[in-house]
Amino acid sequence: MSAPLIETRGLVKHFGGVQAIRGVDFTLAEGELRCLIGPNGAGKSTFFKLLTGQIKPTNGSVLFRGTDITALQAHEIARRGIGVKTQVPSVFNGLSVRENLWIAAARHRKGKAIAQAVEAQIERLMLGRFAASVTGQLAHGQRQRVELGIVLCGEPNLILLDEPAAGMTEEERGRTAEMIVEINRDHPLIVVEHDMAFIRSIARRITVFNQGAILMEGDVDEVFNSQAVRDVYLGKAVAA
Ligand SMILES: Nc1ncnc2c1ncn2[C@@H]1O[C@H](COP(=O)(O)OP(=O)(O)OP(=O)(O)O)[C@@H](O)[C@H]1O
Ligand SMILES: [Mg+2]
């Protein structure tokens, strides 16, 4: 069997007295689309930050295609192709959609290849109508798509999406779900989301975080029917 795309071994992160991640062993296969769920404060965003090198673990390691990347700087990890859309927006609001994508694409390409990548993502993300618009003036859902475009322009080998559908209308959520499934045809993804209907529409395999640890992993039905998972959501409609 080939090495997993990404793997964590005994990953631990403490912030002072807060044990945000408590010994996570996680593996993602090449080509996979994995959903990460769990209540507020479960450690999902912290886990992403450990994968991208934005923060360093207290203990444990991160392996990318079998290579230990734990000690690498965030920019070195980004260069290896781990792209992330964080919970906090990272677009330049004063620039147009096309300019934002151009900046992202120009980090990895030269000459004509930049424009090709930009136009390909504009088409894929159905941003054509807004390509010349000032990004800060777009609707929230459209801006989120620009963020996705920025990640895709980086030619990622792995895409991490932290709450890609947050604050979107029902229609935008549906469109985003379709895009994620489409993107997964040629990119592995890990998607953190709270919206269970959204998870249901894209998920194959789900990892449930709770209090910094993996509570369970399984397919959609196993997870949504699990009493343990229902319990950690304290009656929130997990199966909705
Ligand atoms: N920089 C930090 N300093 C101190 N504590 C932190 C820091 N970042 C996260 N934490 C704490 O670590 C725990 C996990 O937080 P994290 O943001 O990873 O949760 P999450 O699962 O992403 O939650 P949400 O669903 O609300 O986004 C929380 O208790 C949080 O308060
Ligand atoms: Mg979070």
Q: Explain this structure to me?
A:
- There is one protein chain.
- The protein is globular and about 45 Å long.
- The chain has a six-stranded mixed sheet, with helices on both faces. The protein has a four-stranded antiparallel sheet with strand order 2-1-4-5, with helices on one face.
- The chain starts with 5 loop residues before the first strand and ends in an 8-residue tail after the last helix.
- It is built from nine helices and ten strands.
- The model has no long low-confidence stretch (mean pLDDT 92).
- With 240 residues, the chain is α/β, with parallel strands linked by helices.
- The protein has helices at residues 44-52, 74-79, 97-106, 112-124, 140-153, 170-183, 196-202, 220-224, 227-232, and strands at residues 6-15, 18-28, 33-37, 59-64, 67-68, 82-85, 158-162, 189-192, 205-210, 213-219.
- Helix 3 (97-106) packs across helix 4 (112-124), helix 3 runs parallel beside helix 5 and helix 6 runs parallel beside helix 7.
- It has a domain at 89-154.
- The chain binds adenosine-5'-triphosphate and magnesium ion (MG).
- Residues 44-45, 87, 162 line the site of magnesium ion.
